[in-house]
# Entry
Amino acid sequence: MRIARFSIDGTVGFGVVEGEPTDEDGLVLDIIKGHPFAEFERSGHRVPLKAVRLLPPVLPSKVVAIGRNYAAHARELGNEVPDTPVTFFKPSTSVIGDGDAIRYPSISREVHHEAELAVVIGRMCRDVPRERARDVILGYTCANDITARDVQEREKQWARAKGFDTSCPLGPWIETDVDPADLAIMCTVNGEQRQLGRTSEMVRTVEDLIVHITESMTLLPQDVILTGTPAGVGPLHAGDEVAVSIEGIGTLTNKVVKA
# Structure
């Protein structure tokens, strides 16, 4: 099931996306009663997806991100794979949706794309055992961990480099029926392939990350985990169109504009 968050005529809600993602003109949104973090019903009120504005699929209280979770990416930046996951936060104010603009931050002259699988949490959880990790997941979406690389290198900690406004595109929707173990993940810039990998290359699996994170903090419904990026990260410039595509989920597309 593909669940989208949308706005139409001033109303914000959730709906189930019907149709094939490759047929954009044929996609239809069946608006649901309530929200997807509890039992819900389809209303039967269907509208063409192109008639609504897609919003970020969730409004997370926090985005918990994992660095250096693909060995090839760690190596391309001159780093080793860490003994324990490198964990950092992106604030809720960094989140934007499909089609929204990435605003090039004034603090940086070197902004990079990082295509990632994002995990959307469906229920409040703490100290999750590995065998129950899938139970707390609502689904998965595409993410782009936009990074001010020069700021990251200069400041040696990542709060400003990865937390500036518009640095966390998510979307276009949440896919609830996909196995995250071995999905193709790709990033293109202006139609040119930059990154191509598979989630099976992750050093630590989705289940590993949920166990690690919930050892120290409570995750809430709508919280998001970013699972790391494959090799091939590179620069973005104002005017670029960057797209993250993940097998079985869809494509997240954003344009880069001057701040």
